[in-house]
Design brief:
By secondary structure, the chain is mainly beta. It has two domains: 217 residues, Quinoprotein alcohol dehydrogenase-like superfamily (Methanol Dehydrogenase, Chain A), CATH 2.140.10.10; 193 residues, no CATH class. The chain is 4% helix and 29% strand. The chain is built from three helices and 25 strands.
């Protein structure tokens, strides 16, 4: 049986070199052979039921090792493939079966989906391509035709981080803020909806997630004075089901949820005029047993907290992990990693759910390798998915490679003058509660 993979060229936008990105979720190179589940279809054509992804298949994705139906493969987003036909004994026999070139050397960051013998991948400028996994034949390609001037609205190139699949459709978030549903068999547009305000410098680079007939997507632009939020759209119609704002808006206009009124007490001045930040541009995971969605938020806007308000404060929910009820988008809990963030300490790194044995007890945990530890350290937060309470926090100094358990204690995060630039705070804290704060960095469950 002929097997295949794709080698796609990509590159840094400022360099004239190509980077080979190997995408081998289900398809493999010639020399070994691995079964790829497909519907009956002629080479170069999609199966009769393309991307037949359902809630049941996603919940039980771990039982289909030959599939990669979401950006993290399974809802816990461990991104682990149990396939074992390639190993240390035969990896040297692999050879190229086929490859496909992308039409740009701009940034390529997407995780391909591999569903029933078809590879779906997004590229720079939010383009989407579908390939036959066996032959490498291009089945269809879609270009949302993002206006070129939008490239200047983002910080980090016109990248796209991936796709979602549901009930015969492939979903992509275009850089100019459209959520687009494509027919998985033909690439034709089924519907599209604008998810951002074009009057503001907002973009969309994240991978959507499909959860129980809803498609989740956030926004990007935390460097440019915007307000973050996570939205859920009906997968069949594109109707907005709910939206959760990650920072409070102008109090004079009222608050979209009671929790935002509480969060507003941690802000001072006229912060809403500059947006506030806390955009949701990457990490989103879902626990179907608890029916909770978890996601990370980005830095405050602007970076300098003094410009967000002269009174300081924790500025909830910047640099935080937030849990919402999947059906309604209602607030469940939060865990703020960098209160009053002014160092671009995003909490947007990938989140992972797992069952771990900690101190002799089996714990269901949420993990993140966060960015807010003092360099050059590695920091891992382990949090209870049901309560948001810290379970364990570790730091590892990159020079010594020795992990250190972080003790829980209250600290104040220092502010820095221009003369301090380049020196980062050496804070080691598992939980922070500021004296006088109305909401602590880690919050117990509350109703919105």
């Amino acid at each position: 049986m002929r097997t295949a993979t794709i080698l796609a060229r990509g590159g840094h936008p400022d360099r004239n070199v190509s980077v080979l990105v190997i995408m081998c979720g289900v398809a493999l190179l010639s020399g070994i052979g691995l079964r790829v589940r497909t519907a009956s279809a002629a080479p170069g054509k999609t199966p009769a039921a393309a991307a037949a992804v359902t809630a049941r298949r996603l919940v039980h994705a771990g039982s289909e090792p030959g599939q990669w139906m979401s950006v993290g493969r399974t809802y816990d987003e461990q991104r682990y493939s149990p396939l074992a036909r390639i190993n240390v004994k035969n990896v040297g026999t692999l050879g190229l079966a086929w490859y496909a070139d992308f039409d740009t050397n701009r940034g390529q960051e997407a995780t391909p989906l591999a569903i029933d013998g078809v590879l779906y991948v997004s590229t720079a400028w939010s383009k989407v391509k579908a390939f036959d996994a066996r032959s490498g034949s291009l089945l269809w390609a879609y270009d949302p035709k993002v206006p070129g001037e939008f490239a200047g609205r983002g910080c980090c190139d016109v990248v796209n981080r991936g796709l979602a699949a549901w009930n015969g459709k492939i979903y992509v978030a275009s850089y100019d803020g459209r959520l687009i549903a494509l027919d998985a068999k033909t690439g034709a547009v089924r519907w599209e909806v604008l998810t951002i305000d074009h009057d503001k410098p907002v973009t969309s680079t994240g991978a959507p997630r499909a959860i129980d007939g809803k498609i989740l997507i956030g926004n990007a632009g935390g460097e440019f004075g915007v307000r973050g939020y996570l939205s859920a759209y009906d997968a069949e119609s594109g109707r907005l089901v709910w939206r959760f704002f990650t920072v409070p808006g102008n109090p004079a206009n009222g608050f979209e949820a009671p929790i935002l009124q509480r969060a507003a007490r941690t802000w001072h001045g006229d912060w809403w005029q500059l947006g506030g930040g806390a955009t949701v541009w990457d990490a989103i995971v879902y626990d179907p047993s608890l029916r909770l969605i978890y996601f990370g938020t980005g830095n405050g806007t602007p970076w300098n907290r003094a410009y967000r308000g002269s009174g300081g404060g924790d500025n909830l929910f910047v640099a935080s992990i937030i849990a919402l009820h999947a059906d309604t988008g209602a607030y469940a809990w939060h865990y703020q990693e960098a209160p009053g963030d002014e160092w671009d300490y995003d909490a947007t790194s990938p989140l992972v759910l797992a069952d771990l044995s900690i101190e002799g007890k089996s714990r269901r945990v949420l993990m993140q390798a966060s960015t807010h530890a003092a360099e050059p350290s590695f920091r891992r937060e382990i949090t209870s998915p049901s309560t948001g309470q810290p379970v364990s926090t570790w730091e590892r100094d990159a020079r010594s490679r020795i992990p250190r358990r972080v003790t829980t204690r209250a600290v104040e995060w220092p502010s820095f003058s221009r003369a301090d630039r380049g020196r980062m705070p050496g804070i080691r804290s598992a939980s922070i509660r500021r004296p006088g704060s109305s909401i602590s960095r880690r919050s117990t469950p509350a109703r919105s």
